[in-house]
Amino acid sequence: MKHNVMLIVASLLSILFLTFHLTDDIVRGMEKGGASNLVAVPILVVWLYGTLVLAERRSGYVIILLGSLLGAGVPVIHMMGKGVGGKIAQSSGGFFFVWTLLALGVTALFSAILSVRGLWSLQRGQPR
Questions:
Q1: Torsion sign across C-alpha atoms 114, 84, 99, 46
Q2: Of 8, 12, 51, 57, which has the maximum CB count within 10 A?
Q3: Is the C-alpha dihedral spanning 95, 16, 101, 114 positive or negative?
Q4: Which domain holds residue 21?
């Protein structure tokens, strides 16, 4: 599979998993669910634009890298402290919550690696 196709798919999955996760946080009461959560919408739109419209351009790689690092940080934040065991893991939908965190971490980190690789190949003048 081509490098840019893998990057687009991984980035789109990260965006999807991040929206699932934010939704689950709101449903569980971890986030208030107010207007402050709408800040995520323009962030996700920019990430989506960088993924689909600016693919294979330096600006697209940078946007994907920043979004991916943000997405990869979400599982880290949730796993710090008490983690997601106990009440969350045993609650209804706990499996989906934890699975979404892990899937987000994997796809976001993979996207970050591929975007760095894309930036590196642009710098070296290599074909993508």
A1: negative
A2: 51
A3: positive
A4: 3-124
Burial 78-110 (b: 16+ CB within 10 A, else e): beeeeebeeebeeeeebeebbebbebbbbbbbb
Alpha-carbon distance 48 to 12, whole Å?
7
CA torsion angle for 64, 65, 66, 67 (degrees, to 10)? 40
Residue range 72-124, pLDDT digits in tens: 999 998 888 667 777 777 788 888 999 999 999 999 999 999 999 999 988 87
Count of domains for the chain: 1
**Straight-line distance from the first to the last Cα atom of the chain, in angstroms, rounded to the nearest whole number:** 12
- Reported as a single tens digit per residue, the pLDDT across 52-79 is 999 889 999 999 999 999 999 999 988 8
